[in-house]
Amino acid sequence: MVSFQVLRRLGVFALTKPVCHGRILSACGLKTSNINHSHGQPGAVSVVTYEQLKAMLANHSVQLFDVRNPDEVQAGRIPDSVNIPLGELEVSLKLPAQKFEEQFKVKAPQKTDDNIVFHCRSGKRSLTALETAHRLGFSKARHYAGGYIDWEEREKN
């Protein structure tokens, strides 16, 4: 049997207040998301594993966005990630490409890009970022559910 912690680590569940709106269904404090953009796999959450992220970084084939707060990023970061705090993400993704590039010093993501990945500390905020991106039309965006905690732990080994 799969434990709650394993499911949460995979981004399938995140703690929240009970809510029922749009694509989010909650009960008993558990939140599930029915994002359906994982390379044609119905019902799958768009998750990138540590191994996949490492390969994408090695190949310079990822647009990695860190949605933690700037003070968290100061304590450590995944290489080549661009910090866009979750509270600024929606406005930032709506910026014209030139403004985005001026502000963040990287190429602006396009709605058709399949290499957009969000991460945070543990996966909860990156799942919210993913939902925001999908709602804005970035339908192939994904998230690294393990977050910086998982990254840091695995990089030590």
Strand and helix order: HEEEEHEHEHHEHEH
Q: Which residue ranges are poorly predicted, with pLDDT under 50 across at least 5 consecutive positions? A: 1-43
**Strand order in the largest sheet:** 1-4-3-2
Number of strands: 8
Oligomeric state of the chains in view: single chain
Which structural category do the helix and sheet elements fall into?
alpha/beta
Mean pLDDT over all positions? 80
Main β-sheet description: 4 strands, antiparallel
- Total helical elements: 7
Report strand %. 15-25%
Radius of gyration of CA atoms, rounded to a whole number: 15 Å
Fraction of residues in H or I helices? 25-40%
Tell me, briefly, the overall form: globular
Distance between the termini: 27 Å
Tell me briefly what this model is.
By secondary structure, this protein is an alpha/beta fold. It has helices at residues 4-9, 50-58, 70-74, 86-93, 97-104, 124-135, 147-156, and strands at residues 13-15, 20-21, 24-27, 30-33, 63-66, 82-83, 116-119, 142-143.
Overview of the molecule:
The protein has helices spanning 4-9, 50-58, 70-74, 86-93, 97-104, 124-135, 147-156; strands spanning 13-15, 20-21, 24-27, 30-33, 63-66, 82-83, 116-119, 142-143. With 157 residues, the protein is an alpha/beta fold. The strands form 2 sheets. The chain has a 4-stranded antiparallel sheet with strand order 1-4-3-2. The protein has a 4-stranded parallel sheet with strand order 6-5-7-8. β7 (116-119), α6 (124-135) and β8 form a beta-alpha-beta unit. α4 runs parallel beside α6. The chain is globular and about 40 Å long. The chain starts with a helix and ends with a helix.
